[in-house]
User: What shape does this take?
Amino acid sequence: MKKSLTILALALGFSTAFTVAGTEVKDGIVKKDDCKLLENDAKIILSKNVSAAFACDEAAATITFGTCSSSGSRGPAKFKCSNSAAPNETPKWNIEGCTEEGKEIEVTGYKGFTLSSKGGSMGAIEFPKPCSGADLAGAVK
Assistant: This one.
């Protein structure tokens, strides 16, 4: 999972655009036509049973990627809250339930992980069951 997130972070670093609604990554390719912030198609290499989704917010010039495993990451984990929105924008927290920068939130159920091109910390999305690409697409914003 960490290897996949590193690859996603690198893809974000070499590009700049998406759709605000989440879109499942199919066949490991994010097409530049699906996100005007990208200069080229992006190839995402995922481990077995790992799904990915992205959201492209052209107005905010932000791309958010998420990954999750159908075999489920379930152990409790603490994440620090990080806001990736500009100072004059509505806060965009990396974890649901965040209200202040640096606050720790524990996620205990099945989880997916997110990264944003705006920076900040890796985020987590909690799911009630093992995650699929469709579940993740509905959660990535």
About this structure: Residues 2-13 form the longest helix (12 residues). Confidence is low (pLDDT under 50) at residues 1-19. The radius of gyration is 14 Å.
